[in-house]
Amino acid sequence: MADKTAIRTDAAPAPAHTFSQGVRKGPLLQVSGQGPVDPATGEYLHPGDVKAQTLRTLANVEAILQAGGASLDDVIMLRVYLTTRDDFAAMNDAYGEFVSARVPSGVLPCRTTVMTGLPREEMLVEIDALAVVTG
């Protein structure tokens, strides 16, 4: 049975609580939910701008994927959590722009989008990822 390894990078925000940025076990890599946080300062960015928050959040997800030996092309599932349905179109545009440009295989990850409350009032979006690392 493969060992479980915590993934850690300074290129993404440090976890605020008792969890890992990501965990890899065998070929599976799970990235914890990320938000629009500057990794260097811990500051929540782009208040009220879900498009900018989505791009920052995906950059944080991507940094953890890379630290675990993966890319967005290895992702099989992204889960997006939004605080309001009104932000769906703007999030979807930013998401499509970011993800499509980073998936050279052309096989986009599966996605679930859920409307829910999030841990911080500043957060309009949170995203996590599941990848299968083949290299």
TrEMBL record:
MF (Gene Ontology): deaminase activity
Gene3D superfamilies: RutC-like
Cross-referenced InterPro entries: RutC-like_sf, YjgF/YER057c/UK114
Name used for this protein in its record: Reactive intermediate/imine deaminase
GO cellular component: cytosol
UniProt source species: Phytomonospora endophytica
Organism classification: Bacteria, Bacillati, Actinomycetota, Actinomycetes, Micromonosporales
Short name of any one Pfam family annotated for the protein: Ribonuc_L-PSP
Annotated region (Disordered), positions in chain: 1-20
